[in-house]
Amino acid sequence: MKENKEWMKHFTEDLKKIENAQDAATPSRNQIMNALMERKKARRQALKRELIVFICTALVIFMSYVVIAFKLPKVFLWIQGLALATVPIIYMVERKRRNESAEVAEIDDGV
TM segments (predicted)? Predict the structure, then answer.
């Protein structure tokens, strides 16, 4: 019987610790507005980057069509070679940018 009471006491203490750890502080209005503004700014930057990539892709397709239409195979081959050389560079830069922005913020749990 005594063991059961001790176990129950430890169990209730552990439950209280868990409840205290789960209590999250309500963010203030300023914190929410700052987070919203940062998210909007990041979304605007992403939109600009996507627009630039779209325009560059459209120009490459158009230039390829012009080169083929005027039957300039040497220029076409040079453009393709330069594109193959720059794709890995673009990939590495984008991967580095995504890794830096995917950092997890440190959480203060009040302990």
Answer: 51-70, 76-93
